[in-house]
Amino acid sequence: MQRLIIKRLLGTMTSLKPINAAVPKYGVGTQPFTVLIEGNIGSGKTTFIKHFQKFEDKICAMTEPVEKWRNFKGYNLLELMYIDPDRWAMPFQSYVMLTMLERHTKPTDKPIKILERSLYSAKYCFVENLHKGGLIHDGMYEILKEWYSYVEDITHIQADLIVYLRTTPEVVYERIRKRARSEEACVPLEYIKQLHELHEDWLIRKKVGCNIKVLEIEADLDLSEIDREYKRSENVITASIQQQRPAVTASPSKRSDFLG
Fold this sequence. Notes:
The protein is of the alpha/beta class. It has one domain (28-244): 3-Layer(aba) Sandwich (Rossmann fold). Helix content is 51%, strand content 10%. It has helices at 2-15, 45-51, 66-70, 77-83, 85-105, 119-132, 138-154, 169-179, 189-203, 223-243, and strands spanning 33-39, 59-62, 112-116, 161-166, 214-218. A five-stranded parallel β-sheet has the order 2-3-1-4-5. The longest helix is centred in the middle third of the chain and has 21 residues, at 85-105.
């Protein structure tokens, strides 16, 4: 009797086909056309996003969650990271990852989402710079890398276009001094130069990172001149969206200039 039961069980098991269907990533199909605004500290990312506030009925624009970083249950993690990076860089970057992920996956009913910075710049620029500068231990660095890999494996990070506000370190350093944020008072020019090179490696030299279209904007210009660059980005965003859509017949008010 036992032999008969075992034989039937074995027959059933060999007849079953393995399930190879991949589990879909969290957030697949939930995000609109997404633009990432990247650049060094002081490159004008927040100003760029404010330019698009006039399209608030069509664009979900999300600035960097700096206020969360400044006040996490009463702790200014941003300031602590700058003052004592050996101790605070790891927890700060962990919290950056969490808050960025929240913004990447936050639902919206708008056809366009614009994000100030992203998980990618946190990974390829800021964490990398901390490690190269010896401000985080190799073990901490490997933990953060493992977390980034895991997040990318299980979560769909929508990224259709990167707008790179390209600047020179000396220009943004002067801007940082003028805006006088208390947390940035101890930021040296050398730190800005290092971040610049890592942005260049990622977005210009393509040494690291994923295959996302990059629009480069000359962001050394002062505010009186840079508006035309912002306008150019409107046209590129519109054209990029249209390239991803099937051809349809639309009324003039709904054609490719829908940001206008």
